[in-house]
Amino acid sequence: MTLQQLKYAITVAETGTITEAANKLYISQPSLTNAIHELEKEMNIIIFNRTNKGISISKEGEDFLGYARQVLEQAAILEDKYKGDNGGKKKFCVSTQHYSFAVNAFVDLIKKFGQDEYDFSLRETQTYEIIEDVARMRSEIGILFLNDFNEKVITKILKSYDLEFHQLFVARPHVFISRKHPLAQNQVITNEELEQYPYLSFEQGEHNSFYFSEEIFSATERKKNIRVRDRATLFNLLIGLNGYTVCSGVIDKKLNGKDIIAAPLADESDMRIGYITHKKGRISRLGTTYLEALNKYFN
């Protein structure tokens, strides 16, 4: 097994086709196919399933590629330290719920380590996808929250994937509303006061259970519900419809807009916001720097 073979396998997984991967790697398709076959034979696994419609990653292939990404990351760190160059293109990926502080920390990371070449990914995505990304080591770090309602379910899933939760800070739930909202002057807002207004939340796909919600689940029934996929749509509807959402209260005017304010929400359990990592993984220098940047926004 060589680092080159690992790079080949990861490129095939990222592109989805042998043809595109071969073009990206500047080698012939037969050479790439043979290299992948030799790797699978040596490691005694099937990384890619082959069909008439193309290739797909096998279940054991997902696990293997997760470890392969870590090996290549560590190799890049060694080159960076001992070869006196940049160790090639820096790579880093974090998956997160829709938090402005996660974006700001990502910006800080790029400013510090971007250099001339880098390949960084910030995935603002659904809760279950965050867990899967870290479980398969596509992302080094995943950011989400636990509270009294979802902790038992989420913790069980994390354990089944061999993942760990690390608390960053405890937040009191806040309501995000327009500065012109009828409740904007309230020092504290109750669920009863919010009953007549549309509740905005992020859609969670196949795992649209309350336990995977990015927002606090309340025992109070919400009569008007709107689910969206991205931050911009949520805030546009929040302003246009006098809607509201529930989040940590950490707000950034540059990202969320000056027309959005946060007010404490009464009678809801605290949000324990943190990050998840794989127990078998190791936090890289980029990951450590990102976590340091995150902490800057809470302290």
Tag the structure with descriptive keywords:
41% helix; 3-stranded antiparallel β-sheet; D-Maltodextrin-Binding Protein, domain 2; Arc Repressor Mutant, subunit A; elongated; alpha/beta; 299 residues
Describe the overall structure.
This protein is an alpha/beta fold and 299 residues long. Among the domains are: 1-83, Arc Repressor Mutant, subunit A (Orthogonal Bundle), CATH 1.10.10.10; 170-269, D-Maltodextrin-Binding Protein, domain 2 (3-Layer(aba) Sandwich). It has helices at 3-15, 18-25, 29-43, 59-82, 100-113, 127-135, 151-160, 191-194, 231-240, 253-256, 285-296, and strands at residues 48-51, 54-57, 90-96, 118-124, 141-146, 163-171, 174-178, 199-202, 225-228, 245-247, 260-264, 271-278. A five-stranded mixed β-sheet has the order 4-3-5-12-6, sandwiched between helices. The model has no long low-confidence stretch (mean pLDDT 86).
Arrangement of strands in the largest sheet: 4-3-5-12-6
What is the mean predicted local confidence, pLDDT? 86
* Name of the CATH first level of one domain: Alpha Beta
Relative strand content: 15-25%
Q: Which regions are unreliable across 5 or more consecutive residues at pLDDT < 50?
A: none
| Structural class determined from secondary elements | alpha/beta
Helix content: 40-55%
Amino- and carboxy-terminal Cα gap? 45 Å
Largest sheet descriptor: 5 strands, mixed
The name of the CATH superfamily of one domain reads Periplasmic binding protein-like II
SSE order? HHHEEHEHEHEHEEHEEHEHEEH
Principal-axes shape call: elongated
Number of helices: 11
The CATH architecture of one domain would be 3-Layer(aba) Sandwich
Radius of gyration: 22 Å
How many runs of DSSP E, i.e. beta strands? 12
If you consult CATH, what is the topology of one domain? D-Maltodextrin-Binding Protein, domain 2
